[in-house]
Amino acid sequence: MTTRATRGPRRRTVVALAVILSVLAAFVVRLVDIQVVSADAHVADSQSYIGGSNTITGQRGTIVDSAGIPLAESVLVYDTELSPLVITQLEEKDPELPWAEASEKIAAITGQTGDEVRKLVADALAVNPKSQYVELKKSLTTEQHIELRDLKLAYLHQTARETRVYPNGAVAGNIVGFLNGSGEAQAGIEKMDQSCLAPTDGAKTYRQGKDGVVIPGSEKITDAVDGGTVQLTINSDLNWYLQQMIAEEAQAQGAKGGTVTVVEVKTGKIRAAAEWPSLDPNDLDGASPSSWGSQIFHRDFEPGSTFKAITAAAVMEGAGVTPLSTVSAASKETFPNGAVINDAFTHPAYNYTLAGGLIDSSNVALSKFGTMVSPEVRYDYLQRFGVGEDTVGFPTEVSGILHPVSEWDSQSLYTTTFGQYFTVTAAQVAGAYQAIANGGEKIDLSLVESCTQPDGTVVAADEPQHDQIITEQTASDLTRMLENVAVQGGNADRIQVPGYRVTSKTGTAQVPDGNGGYKAGVYFTSMVGFAPVDDPQYVVVVTLDEPTKVVSSAATASAFQKAMTQVMKTYRVMPSSTPMDELLPKFE
Length: 588
Hints:
Elements: H1 4-37, H2 39-50, E1 51-56, E2 63-64, E3 70-82, H3 84-91, H4 99-110, H5 114-127, E4 134-140, H6 142-149, E5 156-165, H7 173-176, H8 188-192, H9 194-197, E6 202-207, E7 220-222, E8 229-232, H10 236-252, E9 257-264, E10 270-276, H11 295-298, H12 308-319, E11 326-329, E12 332-334, E13 340-342, E14 350-353, H13 354-359, H14 363-370, H15 375-384, H16 412-415, H17 426-437, E15 441-443, E16 448-452, E17 458-460, E18 466-468, H18 472-488, E19 505-512, E20 518-531, E21 538-545, H19 557-570
Parallel strand pairs: 2-8
Antiparallel strand pairs: 1-6, 2-3, 3-4, 3-5, 6-7, 8-16, 9-10, 9-21, 11-14, 12-13, 15-18, 16-17, 19-20, 20-21
């Protein structure tokens, strides 16, 4: 029988048990929340107190020439710092390596004195007794980094930093490009092939105790992935020679600048892209910012007479004209629409053949031949030969200007036949003549061979596009006429390459004055050609920006001859084995 006396203690026991169970349930709920529901958040929160991490820097890839010679590569340097607070804490615990001794070992590696190292720490503690940072030394080598690391000092921290170097200096420097102070690609191949060259950084994470010492076994490492190697089509030895040569020639002619572009006929590969002023990416301050880009891809100009060959192609295919077809042309004529066209020299009316019009570079003759087809046809041929289109996708490459036919007025209807009222780059000129030399098949120019990934996988550049833009017969006729230009033209004696049959065509372009007109007596001159005629291998384009000693395209003759000669030697091209065909007549 339950009595009142026994019911009281039992009730109290039940109540107490209920309270205990309620508290226990609350603890269980809270524990589940901490360890399961909100585990990630709490772990992340704890990391801010006890966790640490260091970035493992990947190395930027290398840029090499066609033979594997480095043009740009990265070197890791290390910025080193000390934690004064950790030094003092460890000193209180009878460390294996006392600070007085450790500082001497550190100094011997960094090239400082022990007193200098100790003073850095003492000065930092004097300002802040809890200081955890003082810079020891920057830009230490990998060897110094390893020696310091082997000291195994908890208060010594090193951060890897990449430094970009260019072993060949200014050789193809305008093409290779450069990085800014933060390691970001700014120009050239460095920027163009960022996806191949850029590394992927890794990380080292860990937990540390109150005194900053890493807790053993807590380290986790995600390895960095280095950048790949970009191989260019450029021959650095040839580029070096051509840079020296064009620098001498441009300065001898009093020009603002000059370029030489070499393209392999059967592949479209750019084998040399030499220019002056040149850029040494190791020393940006040594060059004007205007020289940090590439004139070959960034400077457009009216091509002038070099594109008379393209007009010839259009009329041969569009109007049935042959190299021996004729027009009557004086040195100055007024056309039915009122346009006045002049030749560069005074002469009476000649019955010019098409070949003769190219040999004498007669603007009047080419105007008459050119208008045998519609403006739309000529526009189409300019497009076919690459006017208005990028060549290799070089960063900020200029595509040139090709005005629509609707904007051609009474004067430009004729001037477009001899290379005015549209603009091109030296690379585009090289691409146009590559097509002529290659039997009418135009191959997109290329500057990059491949990207070799860190694991050794070689990713070849995209296959260039091939287009038959003119017939083989038209290309053959153009080649024959251009060889006659080289043999009968005004620069014939200055551009001969002993043992080789060569083509050539000059261009003398007026320079815009920025106000809709042209500078008086100022020209941008060029010369383009290929060799050997009987088996074309290489196209060479030379430009001079505003020469002052000789202002006509004759200013480029010496540079063209030297460039073509060196190209034949560099690639050991067999001399011509067949004689030139009978000379084409200039007049009927």
